[in-house]
Write a structure and sequence with these properties.
With 598 residues, the chain is of the alpha+beta class. Helices cover 25% and strands 33% of the residues. It folds into five domains: 176 residues, Rossmann fold; 85 residues, Beta Barrel (Elongation Factor Tu (Ef-tu), domain 3); 72 residues, Elongation Factor G (Translational Gtpase), domain 3 (Alpha-Beta Plaits, 2-Layer Sandwich), CATH 3.30.70; 108 residues, Alpha-Beta Plaits, CATH 3.30.70; 110 residues, 2-Layer Sandwich (Alpha-Beta Plaits), CATH 3.30.70.2570. The chain contains 13 helices and 32 strands.
C-alpha cells in the first residue's frame, strides 16, 4: 500500500487534461508507439468527435521514481465541462489527491474554481500544474498570481509543463509520489469498496469499477451490495491498464473492477458500498450527493411496441451515467414515455446521441424546458418543469425563471453578430475581457430557457465554428411567464405546450404554427393550427383541405345548380370536421425543435 497513489486531474474544459493523460500513458509505456492515438482514454466516438471527455476513465500507471522505488499510480481522469461535474465528484471521492491543471494562456476559469472547491470538500491534496507553457501567448506569472489570489494555493510551487511537447512530465509524476498521501486502510479489515462507475456487458453482466478503502476481495468470494443486500459470487477481479488486466486479488487502497455476473441492472447503484457476505462492514462508505437536474425533456418511443426496449435501455444507460434522472410520463398525443432531467444542454445532447448510437433506440424528444418557480396567491412556492403542471393563471401572484452567466470566447471580428444574438435572447449586463490579442470573452446574464433549444448551434454558425460557450447557473429572477397552448383543429395537444416569457410568446407561437403547417398532411377538411394563451388566440396557420370538384359534371344551366352542390359539399366538410380527428405525424414533434433557419 505505501506504493499506491490515487489521483485525478481536474481543470476547466480544454485546458489539456486528456493530452496530459496521454503523456502519462506513453511515459509508463502502456502502449506501443504504433498503437498510440491522441485522447487514448476517450473511448467513445462522441468524445473524439467533440474533443471533450464525457466519462471519467481509470488507468493504473506503473512508475519507477528517481529514488528507484516502484509505484502504482491510479489515474481517474475527469471531464472538464460543467455538465459533467457529477462525474468529477465521483472520481474525487475515490482519490487522495488531485492535479489542478491551469492553462498558461487562459489562467484560472470558472470550472477550475468549482472543481478546486469540490476537491477541498473531499480533503484532497492539490498539486497546481501550469500547462501549455510552450504557447506564444502563455503568461506563467499571471497564471501563478491567479492560482494564489483566486484559489488560495501556493502559485510559486506550481509545476510548469507542456503536455503537448512532453515537457515536465517526470516532474509531475515525482510530485504525485512525494506530495499525494498513500491510501489508508488495512487488508485484514472487513471489505468496504465504493462503486464509482459501472457498465453493462451483454456477456459478463454488470462490470463494476470500484475503489477499495478496506479489506480485500478475490474470485470465489461472495460479495454483498449494502443498499439492497443482494449477494453475488465474484468471478473475476483486476485493474485497469488500457484493457482490463486480471489479478488474483484486489487489496485496500487499490482501484479496479469486479465481475460477478450481475444481470439485474437495478441492483447496482453508483455510490453503493460492496462488502463481503461472510464478514460485512458495519457502515457503508459515504456515497455522492444527489444531483439536481436543470434541463427537462420527455422521451417517447416512436412505436408503442418499443416501450419495453426503452425501459431496459434507460436502466442500462443510468449505470454508466448516474446523473440522468427519469420517471414515467404519459401524453395523450404520444402515449407512454419518460420525463428526463439533465445537468445541462451538452448533457442532454450527449444522452440523446448515446441512446441512438450505442443502444440503437429511436424516440421522440419533446422541447426541452427548465424548472420555473411560481408564487401563488396563498404565499406557497411551487416548482414546475413540465408545462402540463402549469398552475391556474388566476392563482399566480409571481413567477421566476433560472438565469445563467454565459461566457463566450470568440475572435474579435464576430463581436457584433454575437452581441446581437445575445440581446435577442434577452441577454443583459454584458462585460468584456481580452484574454489574448485578437480574441474577446463576452459575459452575459441570460435566461437558461433562451439557451436550451438552438443557441449553441446559432453561435457556432455566426462565428464559423470558432465560438466557445460555457455557463454557470446564477439563480432565479422575477419574470413574466405564460403557458402557450397549441390547438390543432380546436383540440389542445399537451405534448406541444410550452412555458415561455410573455414578450416571446407570439414569436414562439408563430414559429410552431408555421412548422406544424409544413409537417401535418392535408386532410379532407380544413385544419386550423393555433397558438393560444388561456382563451386568447395569438397565432394561426390554416392547412387547406383536399377538394373534389363537385361542379365538374354541371355543363351550363342555372348557377343555382352549382351553388346547391357546393352547399351540399360544405355541409359534408363541416360534419367531417366535427367528427374527424387529425393525425399528427411523429416528425412534427421533432420539427419544432429546429431553428427557423433550417
Amino acid at each position: 500500500m505505501p506504493k499506491i497513489r490515487n489521483f485525478s486531474i481536474i481543470a476547466h474544459i480544454d485546458h489539456g487534461k486528456s493530452t496530459l493523460a496521454d503523456r502519462f500513458i506513453q511515459y509508463a509505456e502502456l502502449v506501443t508507439p504504433r498503437q498510440f492515438r491522441d485522447q487514448i482514454l476517450d473511448s467513445m466516438d462522441l468524445e473524439r468527435e467533440r474533443g471533450i471527455t464525457i466519462k471519467s476513465h481509470t488507468v493504473t500507471l506503473p512508475y519507477t521514481s528517481r529514488a528507484g522505488e516502484e509505484y502504482a499510480l491510479n489515474l481517474i481522469d475527469t471531464p472538464g465541462h460543467v455538465d459533467f461535474s457529477y462525474e468529477v465528484s465521483r472520481a474525487l471521492a475515490s482519490c487522495e489527491g488531485a492535479l489542478l491543471l491551469v492553462d498558461a494562456s487562459q489562467g484560472v476559469q470558472a470550472q477550475t474554481v468549482a472543481n478546486v472547491y469540490m476537491a477541498m470538500e473531499h480533503d484532497l491534496e492539490i498539486i497546481p500544474v501550469i500547462n501549455k507553457i510552450d504557447l506564444p501567448s502563455a503568461d506563467v506569472d499571471a497564471a501563478r498570481e491567479q492560482i494564489e489570489t483566486e484559489l488560495g494555493l501556493d502559485g510559486e510551487s506550481s509545476i510548469l509543463c507542456s503536455a503537448k511537447e512532453g515537457i515536465g512530465i517526470e516532474d509531475i509524476l515525482e510530485a504525485i509520489v512525494e506530495g499525494i498521501p498513500q491510501p489508508e486502510g488495512k487488508d485484514e479489515n472487513p471489505l468496504s469498496a465504493l462503486i464509482f462507475d459501472a457498465h453493462y456487458d451483454s456477456y459478463r453482466g454488470v462490470i463494476i469499477s470500484c475503489r477499495l478503502f478496506e479489506g480485500r476481495v478475490r474470485p470465489g468470494d461472495t460479495i454483498r451490495l449494502m443498499s439492497n443486500n443482494a449477494t453475488y459470487k465474484v468471478e473475476e477481479v483486476g485493474i485497469f491498464r488500457l484493457q482490463r488486466e486480471q489479478k488474483s486479488a484486489l487489496c485496500a487502497g487499490e482501484v479496479g473492477y469486479i465481475i460477478s455476473g450481475i444481470k439485474t441492472v437495478s441492483d447496482t447503484r453508483v455510490g453503493d458500498t460492496i462488502t463481503l457476505d461472510s464478514q460485512p462492514a458495519t457502515v457503508p462508505q459515504p456515497g455522492f450527493k444527489e444531483v439536481k437536474p436543470v434541463v427537462f425533456s420527455s422521451l417517447y418511443p416512436i412505436s408503442s411496441d418499443d416501450y419495453q426496449s426503452l425501459v431496459d435501455t434507460l436502466e442500462k444507460y443510468t449505470l454508466n451515467d448516474a446523473a440522468l434522472v427519469y420517471q414515467k410520463d404519459s401524453s395523450a398525443a404520444l402515449g407512454q414515455g419518460f420525463r428526463c432531467g439533465f445537468l445541462g444542454l451538452l448533457h442532454l445532447e450527449i444522452v440523446q446521441d448515446r441512446l441512438e448510437r450505442e443502444y440503437d433506440q429511436s424516440f421522440i424528444m419533446t422541447v426541452p424546458s427548465v424548472q420555473y418557480q411560481f408564487t401563488l396567491q396563498d404565499g406557497s412556492l411551487i416548482t414546475v418543469d413540465n408545462p402540463q403542471y402549469y398552475p391556474d393563471p388566476t392563482t399566480i401572484s409571481g413567477s421566476a425563471e433560472p438565469f445563467i452567466k454565459a461566457s463566450i470566447l470568440i475572435p474579435e471580428r464576430y463581436m457584433g453578430a454575437v452581441m446581437k444574438l445575445c440581446m435577442e435572447r434577452r441577454g443583459v449586463n454584458s462585460q468584456f475581457s481580452y484574454p489574448t490579442p485578437g480574441r474577446i470573452e463576452i459575459f452575459f446574464d441570460m435566461p437558461l430557457a433562451e439557451v436550451i433549444v438552438d443557441f449553441y448551434d446559432k453561435l457556432k454558425t455566426i462565428t464559423q465554428g470558432y465560438g466557445s460557450f460555457d455557463y454557470e447557473i446564477t439563480g432565479y429572477r422575477e419574470s413574466r411567464l405564460v403557458k402557450l397552448d397549441i390547438l390543432v383543429n380546436g383540440e389542445r395537444v399537451d405534448a406541444l405546450s410550452l412555458i415561455v416569457h410573455e414578450e416571446r410568446a407570439r414569436e414562439w407561437a408563430l414559429q410552431v404554427c408555421k412548422r406544424l403547417k409544413e409537417e401535418i398532411p392535408r386532410h379532407q377538411f380544413k385544419i386550423a393550427v393555433q397558438g393560444a394563451i388561456g382563451g386568447k388566440i395569438i397565432s394561426r396557420s390554416t392547412i387547406s383541405a383536399f377538394r373534389k370538384d363537385v361542379t365538374a359534371k354541371c355543363y351550363g344551366g342555372d348557377v343555382t345548380r352549382k351553388r346547391k352542390l357546393l352547399e351540399k359539399q360544405k355541409k359534408g366538410k363541416k360534419r367531417m370536421k366535427m367528427i374527424g380527428s387529425v393525425m399528427i405525424p411523429q416528425k412534427a414533434f421533432v420539427a419544432i425543435l429546429k431553428s427557423e433557419d433550417e
